[in-house]
């Protein structure tokens, strides 16, 4: 065992969506720092490790980023193998890139491990194909929430011709809707709202751009959720969904 920090994507929630590489790194870890949106079931892969919750719901109310960084550094400098588990993919709205650069600048060996990001998993779990021949030739992953509240270029997004996957959008639904409508996206554009993707409590609601705020309120949409906006969200691939439901039942 040697000093190293793994920045690991834990995927969207379903423990079976973890990569083999993540499982191997967890088995090596002596200290595991676990974020909010990580399914604690994943910890079965590191029974040997000391686990520290660093998320808002994990005991410490909103652990400051600088504190987490110093914690990783301290354990690594004491010669330990540290795993930092993040929801989804560490480099999709997960600060993985920042943390890797900071650790490397402090002379710590660091390795990023991909996870399946919530936007991709959420769509698939609902039978939505984010790209679809003849319908969507690309995907844009975008966050509705920025640290400095700088505005998004809604017009560019509306006119991109790609499927939009919006993260951190639950408290910004009106802004997303108004921005895209003003940017020229058609009012009837299909929208899928997917909450707790890949977890047993997953819920989804199909809607349209013009109705999404109303529908989300009726549905009581809660975070964590993603929005899939584009023609593909109207395609209900029920065969794929049926198969997914069957597989899950088989597992339980
Ligand atoms: N790194 C993560 C994203 C972190 S930002 C990833 O790659 O998935 C947090 C946002 O991710 C949430 O506000 C929500 O929009 C989305 N999210 C994370 N887990 C989710 C889940 N299981 N279902 C739906 N959305 C999720």
TrEMBL record:
The keyword Repeat is annotated on this UniProt entry: no
EC category name: transferase
Keyword set includes Methyltransferase: yes
Gene3D superfamilies: Cobalt-precorrin-4 Transmethylase, Domain 1, Methyltransferase, Cobalt-precorrin-4 Transmethylase, Domain 2
GO biological process: methylation; siroheme biosynthetic process
GO MF terms held by the record: uroporphyrin-III C-methyltransferase activity
Enzyme Commission code(s) on record: 2.1.1.107
PROSITE patterns documented for this protein: SUMT_1
Keywords for the protein's UniProt record, in alphabetical order: Methyltransferase, Porphyrin biosynthesis, S-adenosyl-L-methionine, Transferase
Domain Tetrapyrrole methylase: 4-208
InterPro entries in the cross-refs: 4pyrrol_Mease, 4pyrrol_Methylase_sf, 4pyrrole_Mease_sub1, 4pyrrole_Mease_sub2, CobA/CysG_C, Siro_Cobalamin_biosynth, Uropor_MeTrfase_CS
Pathway(s): Cofactor biosynthesis; adenosylcobalamin biosynthesis; precorrin-2 from uroporphyrinogen III: step 1/1; Porphyrin-containing compound metabolism; siroheme biosynthesis; precorrin-2 from uroporphyrinogen III: step 1/1
PANTHER family: S-ADENOSYL-L-METHIONINE-DEPENDENT UROPORPHYRINOGEN III METHYLTRANSFERASE, CHLOROPLASTIC, SIROHEME SYNTHASE-RELATED
Family stated for the protein in its record: Belongs to the precorrin methyltransferase family.
Protein name per UniProt: uroporphyrinogen-III C-methyltransferase
Species for this entry: Pseudomonas tructae
